Each structure stands twice: as structure tokens, then as C-alpha cells.
Amino acid sequence: MQHPNFEAHHPLQPEGEQETGFDPLHNFNKNRSRGEKEWDDLFLNSNYLARIRQAGISGRLRSSRFRSVCWKLYLEVLPEDKSQWLNKTKELRAQYEKIKETHITNPRKAAGQQDLVVNNPLSQDVGSLWNKFFQDKELRGMIKQDVMRTFPEMRYFQDEDVRTKLTDILFCYARENEQLLYKQGMHELLAPIVFVLHCDHQAFQHASETAHPSEEMLSLLNPMFHEHDAYAMFSQLMETAEPWFSSFEREVRRGKDEMLTSMPFARPQDSGPSVAIVTKVNRIQDQLVKKHDVELHMHVNRLEIAPQIYGIRWVRLLFGREFPLQDLLVVWDALFADSITLDLVDYVFVAMLLYIRDALIASNFQTCLGLLMHYPPIGDIHTLLHKALFLRDPKNNPRPANYQFQQNLDYYKTRGADLVNNTRGKMAPLNINKVSSSLLSFGRKLIAPALEHHRLLKSESMPVHLSKGEFLSLPTFSLTQKVTATTAPACVMC
Amino acid sequence: MIMMWFCLCPLFQVLVIGDLGVGKTSIIKRYVHQTYSTNYRATIGVDFALKVLNWDSETVRLQLWDIAGQERFGNMTRVYYREAMGAFIVFDVTRPTTFEAITKWKEDLDSKLMLTNRESIATVLLANKCDQGREVLTNNGVKMDQFCKDNGFVGWFKTSAKENTNISEAANFLVKHIMATENDFLKSVVPDTISPKLNDSQPGTCSACYKS
């Protein structure tokens, strides 16, 4: 399905990574059937949907020219029945046309039909078109503010036309979904969609100059309907993502067991009504992380790292800030291909935590937050996805090789923490009991002294070490100081 | 909160809140990394940064929590707010609506966070983007002072992250207030506890305070 020599000349490939002197479209133009061949490979087979799902999950769309078509299928913007593609596409585009006309109209246009008492610029009447005009202006301003700071490092998003497209789509979506309106972060769910469509349009335009594309291709990849198609895809994505943006509060139902265990040591995130996203990230941390890595779970709980501190952004943006765009699109390929319910999100979340688990466990509150909120670069995104699939269904997915973040933590120390290497050895008389060899080998600075009248701030407390000897791959620490204390009697208070 | 007072090396959690696009992230980046860019992405949820300060003879660390403008809605700020010792509430002098939102932010803060002595945490008001030359709102200093008094701010500053105006001044001012609150608290509430000897000349009172 994947053509090896496609890799080098896709528009998604950042400039500078291409071989010098290589015409990106040379092969494509010479062999005009290549685009068509890929199309056939992807969509011609009778069982094509299952096959493109597999392609998405296993990361084989990285250089596809029809990624947007695959996404449309995953997101159910296109039906499985190919004979319906053209109709459905037409229908959705007409729908957006209508939506846009309804919401982005000048109120003065229809003003003649209204009583001037109601419809004047000073009227506070909710029915007044002027009132609507001012509300719209405010909403648009809010959206525009985030659109202006969308992928600021990419030239594509600095283009005024692109920005207007993004703003119009988000505005229409907000007006169509008055309960939710616009929430920060939606713009970064929309932007990759707009970009993927654009890339496919570009590739297709170059190719169609010499080739004879099919009617479906011509219609689906028509740049005239860029905005329409992006709206349809975004709306479908939001069907699943909507609750993660909602600030609607509801009482959380708790199981009897949860009640019993959580009450005596209730954390702030446990009490009171909760919004869906908070419930979700807490479930991930308290159930999935606990299931797959008890030690990590205990560690983050002991440091009182509420998952919403880092997890809200992870989930809302579907990891958009955690990976560079090229990798992000591969992650989205898998998330969308797997299911429109985005069920895989939770497992990618856990896989990401497990990737840095050694570093987390060796770190205090500050460094942990640094790692979680400025997630380290990941070498191989595919391994991460395999891990996520394996975590969800170990029977049907091969166990991926143990893959751990290995860099030293200096970066995170300077950004978020300066504690790890500060010795606490000189502090007060400590209850030093035994030597933990792995602690020494880590160079961790230990010591939660069990001082009777002292309680350390949670941010200052040191990691507990549970299962000695389980650490095979260790994060490399820069040992700038000698470890003077030799054990970490875990302070129960901390 | 109490455990904070026993820590020998001061680490203060400071919140930076205010409506979206008022320049919270820019202020933090200016303060912590001495840089300014127009290219910051919108903060989603929360972000944080650490600033190490030399305060008299000791080191003070500020953990700055950069909270997304839209997070005021909903229950989520509660988690970010706890353990905070001080706050900046920021508005954009060019946009009156962001000024109107200040009181809402302050109410949100006060309703979710109280010191054990029932006082609210030290909060400084920042009138940001004062380089834009449209600071109609803050031209009347007396009015602003009164506004701060009425609304429980310990003070206010005209700031510009772009031109590096008053950022560290405002931070120092806040730290001073946090320290003062802390000392009051130590004296009044827990007189029988060992208090940190902040000006102790003996080195290594708390070795963790000194970066080595």
C-alpha cells in the first residue's frame, strides 16, 4: 500500500529534508498512474475500509496523498458505500454553504424586515439583529485571537485567507452549537484538518495536470470546497471531543469501593462536582495507570499530581502540543482509524506516561511537572502507538520492545525544577536506616526525613522507591553532588 | 497550606490569571526567560514556569502558574489554585472587557482559596500592554488605587511584556507581600514552632535553597 519512494516527495515533508536537486514531482509526473495506483490500492478493494483502517493504525499513511480521504472515511464524513461518496459530499457542502450564510450575514441586510424600535444599534433586545451583530463580533474576536496564534511557527497558518477560513469555520461551529460555543483548543483540532486537506489538494493539483483523475478524486480533492470539507470533518470530530471542552458540571457517581478508598484521603480533584474532562483524566490515571504500572501510579499520587494539570491539554488537543506535526498526524491517523469514539486516546495517554515512567519515578514534583507539561521528544512514534494498542488489547497485539525516555533530566530541571540535585543531606538529623543500592545508583536525592514536627511541602518531597531492582533502564542523571544520605525512609506524612 | 511554613527554602506558588489574550504567557516568558515573542500559542488548561530569585541573602523560588483565560469557567481552577501564595491578575489596557473581568477572576480566586487566617492571598493587578499607548483605563492613578483597595488588591502596575516594563518590579512587590504575610502568619498562628531564620549568616541553613 505504501510506495517507498513516496516518502521523499510529499508536501508534508518539511523543506530541507528533501534530497537536494530532487524534483519532488518528477516521479509523479513521469509515472502518472502512481496517484491513481495509490487511490486504487486504498479504496478499490472490496474490503477497503478495514484495510485503510489498518493502514492508519499501523502508521502507513504518513506519506499518503489521500490522507484526507481516509480521515473522511474514519470520521464518517464519507459513507463506506463508495457509490454514495459524491452525493454525500455534495450534500455536506451545501449544508455548510447554508450554515455560513445564516451565521455570517450582515445584520443590516435583513434589517428592513424589522421594527426600528427593536432593530437599532442601541437596542438590547435579544431579538435585535444589532444585538446579534455585537455578540457575533465579540465571539469572532475571541476566536480570531486564538487563530492568530495557531501553529505560529508554520508559514501556512500566517496566511490571511487561511486564518479567515479557520475563523469562519469555528464561528459557524460555535453558532451551530450554542451550548458549547467556542472553547480554546478547538482551533488546534481544526488546524491539522485544514492542513491535511490543503496538502492533499496541493499534491492532487500537481498530479492532475498530467493524469486523468477519476470523478471522485476531482470532487473530493476540489480545493474550492476546502472550508466546507474541513467544517464537516471538524464537526464530526467534535461529536466525540465535545464533552472534553464542556465546562458543564455534574455530580460524579462513585462506586462503593471508590467511595471507601478515596474518602479518608480525598484529594481536591475528588471532591465536588466534576466536568467530563476531569473525570476522564482521573479515570485514566486512577484506573489505567494503576492497572499497568502500580509504582508509577503511587508515585504521581504521592506527589499529588492531579492529572488535569497536564492531561487536559493532552486530551483536548489530542496530543497536539506533545508531538511535532508530522508525528502528530500519524497519531491522529491511528486515533481516527481505530474508532470515531477516539477510544485509543486513553491508551496513548498511558503509553506516554509509561515512556517517561523511569524519569518520573526518579523525580520530585517539580521535575515531574516539567516532564509532563513539556513532554520530551519521542524518537519513534510508532512504538508509542504499538504500546497503546498493546495496553488496550495485549492478546491481539504484539508486545512492543521496552521503550524508555533516556535523556538526562537537566533540561527539565532548569525549566521546572532545580530540586533534584540539591542535596538535603545537611538538613537536620535524619533517620537513616539502610542503604538502597538502586537509590545510590540513581543519584536520587532522596530523603523524606521522618521528622516528627516537620512536614515537607508536597513539591519538596522525594520519590518513594517500591520495587527495588525492577529498574533495568535508568534515566541518566548528572550527578553533580555526592549522595550523602543513604536511604529514603518514605515519610508516611508526605 | 501549613506545611509551607515549615519549608526552609522558600518556594512560592504564584498564579497568573486573567482573560484570554491579555498577555499572561508573555509576562511569564519575559520574567523567566527574558524573552518576548508575538508567537506564543494559546495556553490550554495550565502551564507553569519556575523563576529563581535572589532575595536579600537568600534564594527564593517562584513557581508561576499560567492559567488559560477560559479556565475561569468551571471547577477546574480549584486544582490549580491550591497552595498558591500570591497571584497576578492581568488585564489588557486596550480592551475594556478584560478589565471588567478582573473582579470575576478575583471572586473566583477568593471563593476557592483562603489563607488559614481567613485572608485572601496577596494579589497584584497588572495593566498589561501599556506600550500600546491606549491606556485610558489606567490614566487615573487615584482611581486605580481606589479600585485596588475596594477589590482587595495589594497594588497595581502598568506593565509591558513587550518592552519589559515593570515586570520584575511587580514580582518583587508581590514577593514582598507574600513574605510579609508569611511572617505575620508565623508569629500569630504558630508561635511555638521553629521558624526559618531567614537572615541567619550561618551557611547551609537550608542547603536546598542554594543552587550548587
Shape of chain B: globular
- In the CATH scheme, the class of chain B would be Alpha Beta
Q: What is the subunit organization of this protein?
A: heterodimer
Biggest sheet overview of chain B: 6 strands, mixed
Total helices of chain A: the number is: 21
Strand content of chain A: under 5%
Extract low-pLDDT stretches of chain A.
Answer: 1-9, 13-29, 255-264, 416-494
Signal peptide (chain B): 1-18
Keywords (chain B): GTP-binding, Lipoprotein, Membrane, Nucleotide-binding, Prenylation, Signal
GO molecular function (chain B): GTP binding; GTPase activity
Protein name (chain B): Ras-related protein Rab
What layout of secondary structure does this protein have?
The complex is a heterodimer of chains A (494) and B (212).
Chain A: H1 26-30, H2 33-43, H3 48-57, H4 67-74, H5 85-103, H6 129-147, H7 160-176, H8 186-208, H9 215-220, H10 226-245, H11 256-262, H12 276-292, H13 294-302, H14 307-316, H15 325-338, H16 345-355, H17 357-361, H18 365-373, H19 381-392, H20 410-416, H21 437-442
Helix pairs in contact in A: 3-15, 4-15, 5-10, 6-7, 7-10, 8-10, 12-13, 12-14, 12-16, 16-19, 18-20
Chain B: H1 2-6, E1 11-18, H2 24-33, E2 46-55, E3 58-67, H3 77-81, E4 84-92, H4 96-112, E5 122-128, H5 141-151, E6 155-158, H6 167-188
Parallel strand pairs in B: 1-3, 1-4, 4-5, 5-6
Antiparallel strand pairs in B: 2-3
Structural notes for this entry:
The complex is a heterodimer of chains A (494) and B (212). By secondary structure, chain A is mainly alpha-helical. Chain A is 50% helix and 0% strand. Chain B has one domain (11-187): Rossmann fold, CATH 3.40.50.300. Chain B has six helices and six strands; from the N terminus they run αβαββαβαβαβα. Chain B has helices spanning 2-6, 24-33, 77-81, 96-112, 141-151, 167-188; strands at residues 11-18, 46-55, 58-67, 84-92, 122-128, 155-158. A six-stranded mixed sheet of chain B has the order 2-3-1-4-5-6, sandwiched between helices. The radius of gyration of chain B is 17 Å and the shape is globular. The interface between A and B is large, with 57 and 48 residues. Chain B: It is a lipid-anchor. Chain B: It is found in: Endomembrane system; Membrane. Chain B: This is Ras-related protein Rab.
